[in-house]
Amino acid sequence: MCGIIGYLGSHEAAPFLVEALKRLEYRGYDSAGIATIREGRLDRRRAVGKLVNLSDLLVHTPLAGKSGIGHTRWATHGAPTEGNAHPHRSGPVAVVHNGIIENFRELREELAGYGIAHETETDTETVALLANYYLTQGLSPVEAATKTIRRLEGAFALVFLFETDDDLLVAARKGPPLAIGYGEGENYVGSDAIALAPLTDRITYLEEGDIAVVTRTSVSIHDADDRRANREIRRVQVDTTRIDKAGHKHFMAKEIAEQPKVIGEALGHYLDGETITLPGEGFDFTAIDRLTLVACGTAHIACLTAKHWFETLARIPVEVDIASEFRYREPPIPARTAALFVSQSGETADTLAALRFCEGKAASILAVVNVAESSIARESDVVLPIHAGVEVGVASTKAFTCQLTVLFLLALEAARQRGEIDAARLADLIAKLRGLPAVIGTALDGSGRIEALSQELSEATDVLFLGRGLMYPLAMEGALKLKEISYIHAEAYASGELKHGPIALIDSHMPVIVMAPRDALFDKSVSNMQEVMARGGKVLLISDAEGLKQGGEVWRSIEMPRIDPLLTPMLYALPAQLVAYHTAIAKGTDVDQPRNLAKSVTVE
What does the buried/exposed string (b/e) look like for 101-130 if buried means 16 or more CB atoms within 10 Å of the residue's CB? Predict the structure, then answer.
């Protein structure tokens, strides 16, 4: 959500800024812009829509200069217009911002008292106006930026550029991530390592409350208490931040196809023969009486799936909460409770705030993340990386199945430690886990039928997903994916809830997608399907060969390989993803960057 880049060097800044912004497109945005300084003159270019519009603008009206800042905006205050696009400017100050300034109205009123008016609908403009006001009061650029930052309330990553000094960037972080990159006679600021990867592999992540003063040859960081801070310079693996489609039409297609590989890699990091090895000193599940799982979006659905595993395998009571609800409900956390937070980016604002609420209350804090250097990872006691690699598509695919894989391994280890699973069953499940990538690969090979039936699904205006047991969260995931990228209204219900309301919606125009492998609950699911078909409903049944045979005459079907029922979530995530993907293709929507959505949600 919003991308930031800053550059101080010996080369023309604009090409570096635009290239870095291209690498940040995955975060989601609706406008983009850059600002540079040349010969003591600050200038900027901004454009609405895709980054190519900014690139075209720069061809006709180029920007010179060897220092600059850039930004991709995801609108929070004000419509996507050129006037509301970043960088925002007031006199000699330009600012880019990720986050929300909660007290901007009060600051606006204060500035209005000084005769300073605003021109945009954004909260960010207030930051530039305030900094410029402090400059007029005789403060230096660094003093003006620092005083401005100390006045702000809310969540923000900020970078200031001053016309009077082309060898200065001031960066600040409170909430959304921000990193400093180190070069030779050049230094950089970026939202994450992906933006900086082509420029440097030496990176410092700012911590909460940090303010950094950056020049071409130096970086000075002060913490929230204005004390000089020595932050670690880390080496990032550039290979892990490469972004390309590898011959696929979309990043989402590539990431769906990568799932056998990345799940295999995740398993390789956690399995040593028949032994599950957790990072660091591991975790003692005998020391807790309950688990609280907290996340947002697709990660929340992974938690709902994991609840089933932890409770059935390890016999640990589990509470699952949406982070934005959990953080404000401020629930009691009993002694001997472990809190586990799941986030692809590791920067999800609501999830991070929920984690901080649990600090000092929960017996232990665990994190399941895809970015090992993220804020959630750094603030947790135990970090469980999912090893999915960079995921660019906004609709999570490989990160979701890797989250499921790691959570299942964690539930298995909990069951072993607590004596709830015997050695033979544990060995059997681990062996089946090792075979999971091959099974998923087989399922991917047969995806052509999904493409064909998705043409028909694309004509629907509403779709209902049904599932029982482990398939209920997967039905939720299917509905979420479909609405995210095809913009078709979709809902998911536990199949047993059909008669308690949703059955009123059934008619011949609304497809009902039933996810039902041939398991202990299959016959119950068939009964629900019959109720749908008796009312003229169109059933798309996703099941294995035996399930399709016993499911009766349905409208359409998708056959999945047979697999141990406990492992079905990882497998049945594929049709959920592919139905959404091919339906979106049929509708002609933007698969990788669907409207109104962002990859990394760093604001409330």
Answer: beebeebbebbeeeebebebebbbbbbbbb
The sign of the CA dihedral 428, 429, 430, 433 is: positive
Dist CA 337 CA 79 (whole Å)? 44
Do 45 and 68 touch, CB atoms closer than 8 A?
no
358 labelled catalytic: no
- pLDDT attached to residue 236: 77
* Mode of pairing for the β-strands spanning 88-90 and 41-48: unpaired
| Residue owning tokens 């960010």 | 124
CA gap 535, 538 in Å, rounded: 9
Give 318's Cβ-side CA count (13 Å radius): 23
Longest dimension (CA), the chain: 81
Phi first, then psi: what are they for 3, rounded to 5°?
Answer: -120, 140
**Cis preceding linkage at 87, omega within 30:** yes
Query: Is 175 in contact with 157 (CB distance < 8 Å)?
Result: yes
Q: Using CB atoms within 10 A of its CB, is residue 76 exposed (0-12), middle (13-18) or buried (19+)?
A: middle
Query: How remote is the C-alpha of 105 from its chain's centroid?
Result: 29
What is d(CA 117, CA 110) in angstroms, rounded to the nearest whole number? 10
Of residues 174, 307, 481, 599, which has the active-site annotation?
Answer: 599
- The token pair that represents 34 in the structure block: 């850059």
Instruction: Determine which one of 2, 296, 303, 358 is catalytic.
Output: 2
CB 82 within 8 A of CB 37: no
How is residue 163 written in tokens?
Answer: 């016309």
Q: What would the pLDDT profile of 422-465 be if each residue is shown by its tens digit?
A: 999 999 999 999 999 999 999 998 777 898 899 999 999 999 99
pLDDT tens digits for range 4-35: 999 999 999 999 999 888 877 766 678 899 99
Tokens of residue 346, six digits: 């590791």
pLDDT band at 140 (very low <50, low <70, confident <90, very high): very high
Nearest to 363 by CA among 265, 289, 434: 289
| 316-341 per-residue burial string, b: 16 or more CB within 10 A, e: under 16 | bebbbbbbbebbeeebebeeebbbbb
Residue type, 264: G
Q: Are 506 and 489 in contact (CB under 8 A)?
A: no
Structure tokens of 167?
């060898």
Inter-CA distances, 45 with 5, 68, 89, 119, 454, Å: 15, 11, 11, 17, 41
pLDDT tens for each residue of 545-591: 999 988 888 999 999 999 999 999 999 999 999 999 999 999 999 99
Closest C-alpha among 601, 11, 6 to residue 352: 601
> For residue 173, how many C-alpha atoms fall within 13 Å in the half-sphere facing its CB?
26
Tell me, yes or no, if 599 is annotated catalytic. Answer: yes
